[in-house]
Amino acid sequence: MRLPRALCVALALLWGAAELPAANELVKLTNVRLIESAANDGDSFLVQAGERKLHLRLYFVDCPETVVSTDADAKRVREQAGYFGLTNVAEVVALGRAAQKFTAEQLAEPFTVHTSYADAMGRSATQRVYAFITTAAGKDLARELVARGFARVYGMKRAGPNGTAAVEWDQELRDAETKALLGRLGGWKNADPNEIIRQRAALRAEQAQLDDVRRQAASLDAPTGLVDLNTASNRQLQNVPGIGVQLAARIVAGRPYRSVDDLLRVSGIGPKLLFKLRPHVIVTGAVSNVSAP
Questions:
Q1: Are strands 52-58 and 111-119 parallel, antiparallel or unpaired?
Q2: Close Cβ partners of 194 (under 8 Å, ≥ 6 residues apart)
Q3: CB neighbour list of residue 288: distance below 8 Å, 6 or more residues apart
């Protein structure tokens, strides 16, 4: 997804840069430093990059919440608990705080950032942008969090700074997650396999209900019928406004999808494009891609 020119200029002025690059190009920032802030957590934090202050959000991973003060927080903690097979909410929040501490320790020394300034949205006071982080020790922060059981493989995905395809990077992280599970590390220490299955099934059922509500509402804007993301041909996908030849190919390669929201893991699709596509697409008869780690 390419940011509108006007938005690029606005962000450039905000961050003290002459002009930001296109959103699909990863830029390398060196000698970046962590800014201590109450807003920081395991996967989202403020940094100083030269004269610019940025609020970064890691690609590929999600750390548990560190506080539960809103309904949205509670819903996310419930989902995170289900992922790790935990029944005690206190354990989930404690894991989030452990991840927060781990990230702060890993970023105590200057580190390297690769970002395209893609909007990570969220509820923070400042705009967040997605990024890959390489620590002073040369380690990928997202991978380190997953390998220690501090994060789940979840969220926005894209090709890595070394050219690794998003699908390959995702699989490498899932392998690291499996190893953490088998080693009972971090959030997997008290994981209950039966609870993982039960809670994930409940979450899938809830998501199916939400998709059904969206599908019924979207039918008003799609008189010619909705395109199924799991079964549509490449040509059918290209008939959807906003989907071209390359994007259609990436959507096909990313199958199966369990909900329309899963399109966010496809390179080139962000929240704005997803909003545009939602009235025209649907997921039916999907095979869940949430496998036990």
A1: unpaired
A2: 85
A3: 204, 256, 258
In tens, the pLDDT along 127-161 reads 899 999 999 999 999 999 999 999 999 988 899 99
Indicate whether this model's pTM tops 0.70.
Answer: no
Please give the structure tokens belonging to residue 268.
Answer: 């080139």
Structure tokens of 23? 């959103």
Peptide bond into 256 cis (omega under 30): yes
Return the amino acid letter for 162: N
Percent of the chain with pLDDT over 70: 85
Nearest by Cα to 252 from 234, 270, 227, 271 = 234
Report the C-alpha gap between 28 and 31 in whole angstroms: 10
**What pLDDT digit, counting tens, does each position of 237-290 carry?**
988 988 988 899 999 988 999 899 999 999 889 888 998 899 889 997 544 333
CA distance 134 to 30: 10
Q: 22: Cβ–Cβ under 8 A, 6 or more apart, which residues?
A: 2, 3, 8, 116
- DSSP for residue 264: G
Cα 33 to its chain centre, rounded Å, is: 23
Q: How far is 85 from 189, CA to CA, in rounded Å?
A: 10
Does residue 181 carry a pLDDT above 90?
yes
Which residues contact residue 127 at a Cβ distance below 8 angstroms, ignoring those fewer than 6 apart? 11, 14, 55, 119, 120
Distance CA(191)–CA(18), nearest Å, equals 49
